[in-house]
Amino acid sequence: MKRPMRRGLNAVLAALAVAGGVWGALALYFGLRAPPPVPDVLAAGFALTMAACLLGLPGWRRWAAAAGLFALVLAWWASLTPSNDRVWEPEYSRTASASRDGDTIRLHNIRNAAWLPDGTLRPHYHDADFRLSQLNEVDLVCSYWAGDAIAHVFLSFGFRDGQHLAVSVETRRERGKPWSALAGFFRRYELIYVVADERDLIGARTDARRERVYLYRLRATPAEQRALFLSYVDRIHTLAERPEFYNTLLNNCTTNVVDRANAAARVIPYSWMLLFSGHADRYAYDLGRMDSDLPFDALKRASLIHRPDDAVQDADFSREIRRGLP
Fold this sequence. Notes:
alpha+beta; transmembrane helix; membrane; single chain; five-stranded antiparallel sheet; three-stranded antiparallel sheet
């Protein structure tokens, strides 16, 4: 009996050690902010050293050595801190901030970047005031770039004076660092709330990248709209002072939308449809947060933004993209 138990224990320890080795190598590869080939060398060195311990040391020594190596990487990992002070890609060069004076919200560093046909960006920023009493619309935007399972999800707030303010939760990437879903698990990116006009955040996706973009009017009372907007304002203010790491699973575009909604109103239960963000619109529909006069499939077809190939992003952009939508 003892021998089978020992074998079972060794199998469990071996599985944990291998998992720790893989995690540690990936953490070093993605988490080290050092010029190449330093991350590559250290990640490979860690993996090889872990393998040597597991294969070359006898008995309990192999587990002790593997645990010690993992503890070293874990201690380094715990020491990583997010920052707002790095050399960023141009589109993420500034973070928004906010202040409130009664009914008026002043937002700083609102991006109104010009996206060129080749996909490059010419960033511009401005400050603007928004009155809570003028807020009368909240829209859900879902943008698909590959398949239907995953979408980029964000909100846009509309005001009676014609202003629209879009807020997109994204990875704040350093210059020259491409986006990777896997890297997003390993503290590779900071989190940023991109506050922008719709020509920037929606226009980039409809016109420059030619993604499938859907825009839905959300059902919310005036009080719920204001609470949601203020929840976003508070989060923007917090991140300007205390940056956070992005996490592909736990701190991403969809989880932040849900967290802001929960902070503002009622609790939205988590669902697999939030994990696969391409279904977030269907989930909002099922929760009664969209127009239910149409079946969801018909509503989705009708909510697709259509833009001609030669479309111009002028001052009427927000009105034009809503033309014909439910």
